[in-house]
């Protein structure tokens, strides 16, 4: 790998962008392709599949033997709300390989005793995201039922282009949420990106079952997300 390619790879890692180092095994040459440079040809399709799976491997394309070395940032699940659902979701998500952060300004809920081994931020979402911004490799899960806490997290996630944005609540609750977010300046297409009711429809009834439904939907969104130029988040009006 030459110096310029190494610098480009380090820049992609710093910016939390997925990238694939394409190595021609016969020629010994390499090319770095970041997720916003994926083409529509056969190689582009293979790179997209590798970025979605996160797995490196060898492929034969146009009579060339290529090794695709995949570099993707660790996916994060940011949960707004230190509630019973979060207590079940956090350890399951960590077991599935996600970095998990729980945000809740209510210090009686966000305690190490309730979330052993999980990163806790007992602050308001706006304050957390001011120093730790969200990105395309983050999933946002809002479960407090309190608009003062949930809404700032949802707005930040939509503006950052998070691969998953979900919010707890009935359709009636979500209709009121849509009204608030519209008043805050978000357009209908952007708001439509929120998964509500949250989680896959598996008939979940208990907090643990709801957590399973949420995690399943997050994984589905991660593995089926858009890759390429169309995946770059557009500016959302304030």
Structural class: alpha/beta
Q: Helicity range of the residues? A: 25-40%
**Overall spatial form:** elongated
Instruction: Evaluate the radius of gyration.
Output: 19 Å
- End-to-end C-alpha gap: 42 Å
Largest sheet entry: 5 strands, parallel
Order of helices and strands: HEEHEEEHEEHEHEHHH
Sequence of strands across the biggest β-sheet: 7-6-5-8-9
Please, what is the average pLDDT?
Answer: 92
Number of strands: 9
Proportion of beta-strand residues = 15-25%
Unreliable sequence segments: 229-238
* Count, helices: 8
Structure description:
- With 238 residues, this protein is an alpha/beta fold.
- It is built from 8 helices and 9 strands.
- Strands 7-6-5-8-9 form a 5-stranded parallel β-sheet, sandwiched between helices. A 4-stranded antiparallel β-sheet has the order 2-1-4-3, sandwiched between helices.
- α5 links the parallel β8 and β9.
- α3 packs across α8.
Give keywords.
238 residues, alpha/beta, four-stranded antiparallel sheet, five-stranded parallel sheet, 9 strands, 19% strand
């Amino acid at each position: 790998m030459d110096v310029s390619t190494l610098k480009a790879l380090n820049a992609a890692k710093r910016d939390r962008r997925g990238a694939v180092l394409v190595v021609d095994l016969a020629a010994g040459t390499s090319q770095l392709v970041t997720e916003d440079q994926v083409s529509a040809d056969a190689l582009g399709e293979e790179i997209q599949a590798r970025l979605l799976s996160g797995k490196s491997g060898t492929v034969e394309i146009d009579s060339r033997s290529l090794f695709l070395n995949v570099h993707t940032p660790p996916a994060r699940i940011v949960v707004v709300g230190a509630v019973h659902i979060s207590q079940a979701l956090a350890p399951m998500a960590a077991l599935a390989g996600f970095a998990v952060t729980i945000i809740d300004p209510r210090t009686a809920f966000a305690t190490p005793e309730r979330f052993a081994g999980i990163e806790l931020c007992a602050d308001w979402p706006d304050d957390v995201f001011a120093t730790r911004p969200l990105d395309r490799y983050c999933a946002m899960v809002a479960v407090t039922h309190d608009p003062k806490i949930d809404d700032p997290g949802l707005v930040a996630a939509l503006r950052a282009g998070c691969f998953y944005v979900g919010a707890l609540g009935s359709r009636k609750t979500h209709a009121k949420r849509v009204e608030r977010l519209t008043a805050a300046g978000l357009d209908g297409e952007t708001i439509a990106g929120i998964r509500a009711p949250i989680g896959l429809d598996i008939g979940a009834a208990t907090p643990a079952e709801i957590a399973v439904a949420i995690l399943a939907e997050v994984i589905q969104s991660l593995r089926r997300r858009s890759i390429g130029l169309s995946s770059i988040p557009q500016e959302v009006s304030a």
